[in-house]
Design goal:
It is found in: Cell envelope. The protein is α/β, with parallel strands linked by helices. The chain contains 12 helices and 15 strands. Helix content is about 40%, strand content about 20%. The strands form 3 sheets. It has a 6-stranded parallel beta sheet with strand order 4-3-5-6-7-14, sandwiched between helices. The chain has a 6-stranded mixed beta sheet with strand order 9-8-10-11-12-15, with helices on both faces.
């Protein structure tokens, strides 16, 4: 009996070891499928291949922070993409949940979808380093994990993003090029504290300033990437006696710009996100503006990547999305859209991925859970 028990235990252990060995993606050589859309970050980027499974698939988007227009539009375009006929045919179910800034709640939500048997989990992470256990659990269950925007650090999942640090660098380069003040004073309207995108953009911004050799005083305020918050903290900074030579707004750019105008502050260069209202203000007031950021439709690229991975196609572990940067005056119908709401973000089409939306498609969706 003891021998049988030892044998049974040994077989079970071997089976578990075998399962763990084959679980998750196989690392393979590139190039991958659809390389124009799924562009690797570098030549050294590893490529993944999961065993192909039969569709249609169950895919979940686990979002964290939701309190700004970009996140709402990101979810809206994800839902719109999931309903396009060719995509809908691949999906049995597409679920969205937003948990706020609670890291533990986001981890629990991801794990819950794994337990429910979803084929792929897409995460916009509240914390880049906190999801290792989720990735391990997903790989053990042969669930594809992908992250975008605020990407997960773990190398055993697919990360899709633009160069967030590069956006901060570009902001600093623009402001430095537009002022001869020495010393110079810049106002930096940041995102939510601790958010990975905010951290990366701040690092890039200060890296360029530090390397410039110029004396620059940077005043940091937290605008939470939201127009109302950005307007208030900018107004407060100016009211406190702040006179600035340039302003960098990570998000909620129209709010900071409105505060500048309302306060009668000298018109200084502003670099902000891709909000329609911000670009309209720059044109109307003749401001020197740079507008660049991350298109909300990167959520749709991530869905497309998930479907490709589930079909067994080879995809890069890190996918680089193009960054869109435009300068005032902005061209109507191309860079700015007077007929659309001010909260609308440009950058919803990724031509290389054959992903695009009409304004009506986006407007028909919400940022709510489903």
């Amino acid at each position: 009996m003891k021998s049988l028990l030892r044998y049974t235990t040994s077989v079970a252990a071997l089976a578990l070891a075998t399962q763990m060995a084959v679980a998750g993606p196989e690392t393979v050589s590139g190039p991958g499928a659809d390389p124009e859309c799924f562009a690797p970050v570098s030549e050294d980027t590893p490529h993944f291949k999961w065993e192909a499974r039969e569709g249609p698939y169950k895919v979940a988007l686990v979002n964290g922070f939701i309190a700004n227009d970009w996140r709402v539009q990101m979810i809206a375009v994800a839902k719109a993409y999931a309903q396009q006929p060719d995509v809908a045919a691949e999906l049995e179910e597409f679920k969205v949940v937003s948990v706020g800034e609670d890291i533990a709640a986001q981890i629990a939500a991801a794990n819950n979808f794994i337990d429910q048997g979803f084929d792929a989990i897409i995460i916009n992470a509240n914390n880049t380093a906190a999801f290792g256990s989720v990735v391990r659990k997903a790989n053990a269950a042969n669930v594809v994990v992908l992250s975008f925007d605020n990407v997960i650090d773990d190398p055993n999942q697919i990360a899709i993003n633009v160069d967030q640090k590069g956006l901060g660098k570009s902001a600093a380069e623009f402001l430095l090029s537009k002022t001869d003040a020495d010393p110079a004073k810049f106002l930096h309207v940041r995102g939510p504290a601790g958010q990975p995108v905010d951290i990366a953009r701040n690092e890039g911004f200060h890296e360029v300033i530090d390397a410039s050799g110029r004396t620059v005083e940077v005043t940091d305020v937290v605008g939470n990437w939201a127009p109302g918050d950005s307007q208030k903290v900018t107004a407060d900074a100016i009211a406190a006696g702040g006179v600035f030579d340039g302003i960098y707004v990570q998000g909620g750019s129209q709010g900071a710009t409105t505060a500048l105008l309302d306060a009668g502050h000298p018109l200084v260069p502003i670099t902000g996100e891709t909000e329609n209202a911000f670009r309209q203000l720059c044109n109307e007031k003749g401001l020197e503006c740079q507008s660049g950021g991350t298109g909300p439709a990167q959520s749709s690229v991530t869905i497309k990547t998930a479907i490709a991975a589930l079909k067994g196609e080879v995809v890069p572990q890190q996918i680089a999305l193009p960054t869109s940067i435009s300068y005032a005056p902005f061209e109507e119908g191309v860079d700015v859209f007077p007929e659309l709401p001010g909260s609308f973000f440009a950058g919803n089409n990724f031509d290389a991925c054959n992903i695009g939306f009409t304004a009506e498609e986006i407007a028909s969706q919400t940022g709510d859970d489903n």
